Amino acid sequence: MQDPMRVGSIEIPLSEITVRASRSSGPGGQHANSTDSRIEAVFDVAASASLSDAQKRQITSRVGPRVVAVAQDTRNQTQNRELALRRLQDRLESSLHVPKPRSPTQPTRASLRRRMQIKLRQAERKRQRRAPGTDDT
Q1: Which of 18, 87, 98, 101 has the most beta carbons within 10 angstroms of its beta carbon?
Q2: Are 31 and 71 in contact (CB under 8 A)?
């Protein structure tokens, strides 16, 4: 991972991210010469100098005051470090993403026509179910 980590248009220096290694429960944690291959990347939102107050509030409201990403997929610590940092980057990007507001649309002419045809078919079906001799009011 490059220093600084790019999250959208923001650059977060890797010095703001705490990376810890521990014994993995999956691949790499059980082989004979076991290593600390599980990587946990932690980003403290409140302590970050690279985020604005609005961005801090947005991230905190969506994912909390600490953003954590863990990787223990491989037996290699450096590969797990890259994976954890990439997952942290993805989590930060998704929490900063502002969805485009939906613009309301009108139903199409064809969909209105289909709806009316279904209603007419249903009404005709119910009309045919009536007992003979009842009036059509």
Answers
A1: 87
A2: no
